[in-house]
Amino acid sequence: MTPITSMDLTGFTEREPGVWTDERGLVLSVHFFDLVPDLPAPLDQPDRLRHGLARSVARAGAGLIEAVLGEVDSVPAVRQLVKVRRPDGHGQVFLGSWTVPKAGCSAVVKVQAGEGPMTGLREAVVLDRVGPERYFTPHPYGADVAGGLPHHVADGEEWDAQFPEHPLTQVRTALARIAPTVVLHDGFASLPPFAASPAAAAPPAEPEEPEEPAAEPRAPRRWFRRGRSA
Predict the structure, then answer these.
(1) pLDDT band for position 87 (50/70/90)?
(2) Contact 114, 93 (CB under 8 A)
(3) 196 within some domain
């Protein structure tokens, strides 16, 4: 039960309501949150939004790879790619999401995947090619973004083609394929837009633990339904 009425689920198998997986281990989930979005700025203030997201993700011990503004079914939205440490400390989990915020609620499409037994190969190869002096860079969304996982060039999209099996590549690719197929309920799409207070400083939701990929959303409004396929 979400404002998402349909989307392309090719290659995914439903595991529970609102959660699907594919043969590579990708987890796709949809969510509806019936509360004011906790974004640090409205979408028409992109620099402030990205800066606030990067700082709050870093405070949570993770790292914001990128935040990009766009649309889902012609409705303004923000895409985030986040990396988090596995609870056991072995490798990372990559989370990609599109958040469609409204004044009093939001819809989210999320894809996530974790590293397997072999970790750090992408980072090691890129480090060797660019050199240590060019590998780690200040966070592009603010020099004061500190803590969490460091920002480095190996997470860049330009390296995806060379590492097609890497979980970051798979998350980025799956989200890019699925997002254009998402159809939102007309009632949700027509709700008033999100407009954060100028004094808002609340951080966005912390990334979920990888073992709990489908956080339980609050009860959706009854006129929403969830489609199973495009």
Answers:
(1) confident
(2) yes
(3) no
Q: How far apart are CA 101 and CA 221, in angstroms?
A: 15
Q: How far apart are CA 108 and CA 98, in angstroms?
A: 6
Indicate if the pLDDT at residue 209 is higher than 50. Answer: no
DSSP 160-171: GGG-TTSHHHHH
Answer yes or no: is 211 within a domain.
no
Bridge partner list, 106: 33, 101
Residue 172 sits at φ, ψ, to 5 deg, of -60, -40
Q: What is the DSSP letter of 198?
A: T
What is the span of the domain harbouring residue 163? 4-188
Domain of 166: which CATH number?
3.40.1000
How is residue 161 annotated by DSSP? G
Does some domain include residue 230? no
Using DSSP, state whether 199 is helix, strand or coil.
coil
User: Is residue 212 one of the residues assigned to a domain?
Assistant: no
| pTM recorded for the entire structure | 0.84
pLDDT digits (tens, 9 = 90+) for 124-166: 999 999 999 999 999 999 999 999 999 999 999 999 999 999 9
d(CA 174, CA 48) in angstroms, rounded, equals 27
Domain count, the chain: 1
